[in-house]
Amino acid sequence: MFTSANKGEGKTFCVSNIAKEYAKQGKKVLLVDLDLHRPRLSQTIAPMEQGGLMNAVRDMSSVDNQILTLKEENLFFLPAGPLPSNPLEIVSSGSLLPLFDKLKKMFDLIFIDTPPVRIVSDARMIATLCDGVVLIVRSGVTKLNEVEEAKTHIENTGVPIIGGILNGQSYTRKEKDTHAYY
Ligand SMILES: Nc1ncnc2c1ncn2[C@@H]1O[C@H](COP(=O)(O)OP(=O)(O)O)[C@@H](O)[C@H]1O
Ligand SMILES: [Mg+2]
């Protein structure tokens, strides 16, 4: 799963782009919108969609019908679906576990978009479903103490941080010509 300290740091942007890249490489990829507070991916990709993850939680046997095929080959999308009044209750209820067990058997890779880890507790619960967490930091925006706080929240889940992204970093010509870019 992908998360960050605050909103607007590029979680949704990064997770969808990276999911697309893996699909291009031939992996069967599922992108999941588990930001049940601001489901931007669902609103962008499938605004009129009736289905989604929340329906699959209520009726596991319907999971195949809740997954959308996208125009990109190998890329599939599970929208959030009808939003619950208390998202945290859903993500901490244990009902996502059997659903993700099933999804893991259906796809090579699953990328999950989540809300900011410092702001709401959802991402900490969602992390326990995942093999690893990617932490996004927005260059020049996310404060050091916020990164540390986000990192601590994730570490407390016991799920490894498998990557970090410094998002939105711009480089001068000189930096690009030297090793700074790398
Ligand atoms: N590297 C980037 N380059 C250009 N635009 C970006 C980049 N990262 C994020 N954005 C834009 O910034 C805004 C916030 O990003 P978003 O992914 O929605 O943040 P979050 O999911 O963390 O709340 C969006 O309009 C998104 O398109
Ligand atoms: Mg987002």
TrEMBL record:
One cellular component term from this protein's GO annotations in UniProt: plasma membrane
Keywords: ATP-binding, Kinase, Nucleotide-binding, Transferase, Tyrosine-protein kinase
InterPro entries: AAA_dom, Bact_polysacc_biosynth/exp, P-loop_NTPase, Wzc-like_C
Top-level EC class as recorded in UniProt: transferase
AAA domain location: 8-137
Keyword Cell membrane: no
EC number: 2.7.10.2
Molecular function per GO: ATP binding; non-membrane spanning protein tyrosine kinase activity
Catalytic activity: L-tyrosyl-[protein] + ATP = O-phospho-L-tyrosyl-[protein] + ADP + H(+)
Family assignment from sequence similarity: Belongs to the CpsD/CapB family.
NCBIfam families in alphabetical order: eps_fam
Identification of the protein by name: non-specific protein-tyrosine kinase
Lineage: Bacteria, Bacillati, Bacillota, Bacilli, Bacillales
